[in-house]
Amino acid sequence: MNKNVVLEQEWDKTFKLDENVNHEKVIFHNRFGIDLVGDLYSPKNINEDKLPALAVCGPFGAVKEQASGLYAMEMAKRGFITLAFDPSYTGESGGYPRYNASPDINTEDFQSAVDFLSTYGKADPDRIGIIGICGWGGLALNTASIDTRIKVTIVSTMYDMSRIAAKGYFDQNDSEVERHKIRDTYSNLRTKIYGSGDYGRAGGCISLPVPDEVPFYVKDYSEYYKGRAYHPRSLNSTDGWNLIGTMSFLNAPIL
């Protein structure tokens, strides 16, 4: 266990704990040596020896005290053992630099949650599923494609993040020139911040009140993360995550 991981013991979720559900905090680790912190929920008054289990994570830039924890608690009320966890570099979980994202490591995070549930005494290892919310929907699909222990995969996403990053809102930047401009911006920013110790923070949420002219999805999640589900450990509620370059390979010196 990473001694630098400090757990908040007070209930600090953005939702109330349901009286029909048990809750405890747990620490598990991934194969990169990063300690992950999760909230484990279980139903009360169910006598079955082994319950079906679900690992829950997302949205991108969120923490388990927000949507994933609420999903997990609601599924526990319905008879599941559920684990809502903070991914690497985020929330109460370990990893440095903070507020970073990696498709490889975050897919491994999901597999590590399955590791935990597969060896948890009250969970049935033959009935394990995963729920990926918003940006973590794609990571859930990554995980399910390689891990046969996962028997069901649920993806709850509002829009295609990769498509918007590559083509713009409603595909308004869908051209080789516009995609290259985006890549050029991120590439040059790496040069600017190299060695400065500032990894470059950016968030998708804007401060309240949200102007009417912004795209609906920006208005919707800004009002959620900055308003009714604000949490100080959430990247979406505060300063955002480390800048990540978009994936467009046109107009680049490659075969």
Question: What key attributes describe this structure?
Answer:
8 strands, Rossmann fold, 6 helices, two-stranded antiparallel ribbon, six-stranded mixed beta sheet, globular, single chain, 255 residues, alpha/beta, 2 domains, Arc Repressor Mutant, subunit A
Structure characterization notes:
This protein has 255 residues and is an alpha/beta fold. The protein has 2 domains: 138 residues, Rossmann fold (3-Layer(aba) Sandwich), CATH 3.40.50; 75 residues, Arc Repressor Mutant, subunit A (Orthogonal Bundle), CATH 1.10.10. The protein contains 6 helices and 8 strands. Strands 1-2-4-3-5-6 form a 6-stranded mixed β-sheet, sandwiched between helices. Helix 3 links the parallel strand 5 and strand 6. Helix 2 crosses helix 3. The longest helix is centred in the last third of the chain and has 18 residues. The protein is globular.
Summarize the SSE layout with pairings:
Blueprint: E1 21-29, E2 35-43, E3 51-57, H1 67-77, E4 81-85, H2 103-119, E5 123-133, H3 136-146, E6 150-156, H4 161-167, H5 176-193, E7 201-202, H6 216-228, E8 241-242
Parallel strand pairs: 3-4, 3-5, 5-6
Antiparallel strand pairs: 1-2, 2-4, 7-8
